[in-house]
Amino acid sequence: MSSVFSMFMSRTSINGLLGRGSMFVFSPEQFQSLLKVGPDWKSHRLLDLGAGDGEVTKVMSPHFEEIYVTEMSQTMIWQLQKKKYRVLNIDEWQSTGFQYDVISCLNLLDRCHQPVTLLKEMRSVLEPTRGRVILALVLPFHPYVENGGKWEKPSEIMEVNGTIWEEQVNSLAAVFQEAGFVVEAFTRLPYLCEGDMYNDYYVLDDAVFVLRPV
Known about the structure:
The chain is built from 7 helices and 10 strands. It is α/β, with parallel strands linked by helices. One of its GO terms (molecular function) is protein-L-histidine N-pros-methyltransferase activity. This is Methyltransferase-like protein 9. It comes from Engystomops pustulosus (Tungara frog).
């Protein structure tokens, strides 16, 4: 089924249609550790950008009164709506008139056309004192954008320097600072993707950052 659909649909949309392609970035305990909060910690508003099928959103959602998500793929939007999350259009979340206490941007910066603009937009709608961004990025950095069944280069270049993991992590600190953030915490985690007929799952190398606005 996946092979047939791949002729005219993106991989993300195929996974949404078939109810597969779930991702694992962090556990509830790892999320709490990154934000330095306890299991009973509560806050008001979460925005999960590029939420996919909402399985990672589910890890964070118990801590928030309101949960908003965005997603490009219509089939993934169906999955998010079934989970009762509030879906915002990709050009709507920046102009709702309210601020978010936590914005998650997990493995999205290397898959969007304007990553630098996205960082600045997150800064503009984040609550300025207690607000935090939790951001995951696969390193080494290889940006491309999924368009139908094809891959394209992003229209905006995010300057990530260095060849090894540690060099690129250090380079990203300057990228975040330019967008109005400072790195409050970071870790290295395996990013697990549901597999296919050849592999049960795939493992990528994620750098996960907690960003504080300055």
